[in-house]
Amino acid sequence: MNKIETKLAKAGDEILDEAAELLKSGGIAAIPTETVYGLAANAYNVEAVRSVFRAKGRPQDNPLILHISSTEMLYDIAERVEPLALTLAEAFWSGPLTMIFPRKKHVPAETCGGLDTAAVRMPRNRFTLALIEKCGFPLAAPSANTSGLPSPTSAAHVYEDMNGKIPLIIDGGECRYGVESTVVCIENSDTVRILRPGAVTPEMLREYCHVVIDSGVLEKLDAGAKVLSPGMKYKHYSPKAEVYIVKGTDNSISSFLNSHGVNKTGFLGFGSEDPADCVISFPYGKTAEEQAENLFSSLREADAAGCSEVYVRMPDTAGMGLAVYNRLLRSAGFRIIDTEK
Ligand code: AMP
Ligand code: MG
Fold it and tell me: Where is the domain boundary, 116, 148, 171?
């Protein structure tokens, strides 16, 4: 790929027209959202969408989420909108909930990884909503990282991965949540299936309907297994360092790190452990919300510090912890060390 000049611009009125023109002419740009940064293209422009796949090195069968700014846009994409989907849209949009709909024929198959469905969400970011509105079409936007690496939660992370590959990065500050949206499909009139957990938690969805958590959320998929959400089958969110999940108490984890830690061993803990001096600590928080916010950036920091292995303390899986654990399992290739055994 030829290197191109990458412009970094602060989100605001000054860049809005330029970004909209770029996207209207088939260009791509990194945009801020409340979950992670997205790499956006006109969802209806096949060439633009291909540029996104190329810049990320994303497998062609991993579909993109279409970001909208109004329910009219949803009806332009979806062949059918179930009443439950409308209820959830009313409850959680704008916000970190993505829903899957049967797609209309004019939505390109390339955007949707060849599936008959399209994933749609309305992001909660003022600039990005204004940008979509100005464009007048949905923005297909996967996370703005190189495929396989931890998702970007700041413009600096996007720059690390995308400098020289995309013309524009819009800096909207640090992402509020730090993990990607919750992805659900409507199972029947009163049930949704969670394909990817996020900041809209099972507990929050249960206020409105029954919730099934797909087995792919916490289990390793067999090779060749048919998956509802193609993104779940790929190794994902992994830094260069080898990641292992460590399970146990403050004491058992501390003694594990004392005996296994060597120079440049990295550790993401809750801050209450006492690792050996040679271990480099990147506390990622005590609450699920803090852990979600810091997980990807701490993994990137561990790489920047030259860690060759990183141990990450297993989070509690209640609430948003399910999203943290789901990302961590993939990042660690499902390797878990029980330090109490
Ligand atoms: P990312 O763009 O990195 O946030 O990943 C998008 C996620 O949404 C991936 O896990 C995809 O598999 C999932 N996704 C997007 N479109 C669909 C769809 N039509 N059906 C099922 N999952 C989808
Ligand atoms: Mg991604």
Answer: 171
